[in-house]
Amino acid sequence: MKLPSLSILACALATVAQAQVNQLVGPSLNVTTILDFDNPFVASGPISGTSSVFTSAGITSVTLVGTTTVSGDTMTTGSNVAGQGLVAQNGALAIAGPGEPLDNLAAGAGWDIQLANTATEFQVLFVDQVNMGYQIELFLGATSLGTGAFTYSGGFPNPPHYWTGTGAFDRVLITFPSGSGGVGIDEIAVDGGSPAIGTNYCTAVANSTGSAAVMSASGSASVAANNLVLEGAGLPTNAFGFFLTSLTQSNVPNPGGSAGTLCLGGSIGRYVGGGQIQNSGATGMISLAVDLGQHPSPSGFVQVNAGETWNFQAWYRDSVGGVATSNFTDGFEIVFVQ
Question: CA-to-CA distance for 260 and 256, rounded, in angstroms?
């Protein structure tokens, strides 16, 4: 028997890897729309990737990846465009409605969507473009769960599509390997999608990216489950940072010469043990799975108990005008349950 060549084996392995992400034609019966830019209505114009429009809907951040080109294309009514959608305008994230401009996407451009909680299905409606190839990659934390290459084909109206992987995921990367004409997304939906498990408070100060960093968490507030993951997004790239925690909230501008605002008071614990100081890397994000039985405090580790309210914040290094400084995310309050 003749054995297959290495190139044939490589192609077979690639096919298996791509099958780790599956595409289905929606709408799925399992998902709930968490972000429709018409309900509530979101005004047209630039939007921060950590806007409360996203965070209040259980999306930690949306990042426009790659480059775009101003093309003169506009959102065309009837091409899955019935109202507002998320697009690129002048190389930045924006909301646009019928008749308003949207950029073309260069090869490799798209959206990087970080969810506050894990999901097993993710659905969007592509608007203003059809018959284009795209790639979906799913992640859980920093681990890629696989990639799939697909085509959005046919005419308008075209239904939403949704994707599943080998397990739960909390990040979706949508890119267009060969580029695309003007395209947007709308009606973002996930199964089990819900707002973050805590509540943001205290206003963070914009950092060197031009936007404020935002604090969130995934997993659950269950002490018994002990699966809480702290997350900070919107940090400068390749910046070191760590998480802080306290039973007390505060609002202290520029503590110790920092450019930011400390949202914690009283006794403040720091997650600075082995492997707990994080680097934001190319995504500008840090995350840490914490042990609620080893919760840091100035006097040592304590146990988090059901019924307690703990507050969290991330501190990180930054540089403004070439001068080294530091900054903070906003604060994040979690009421723990059994």
Answer: 10
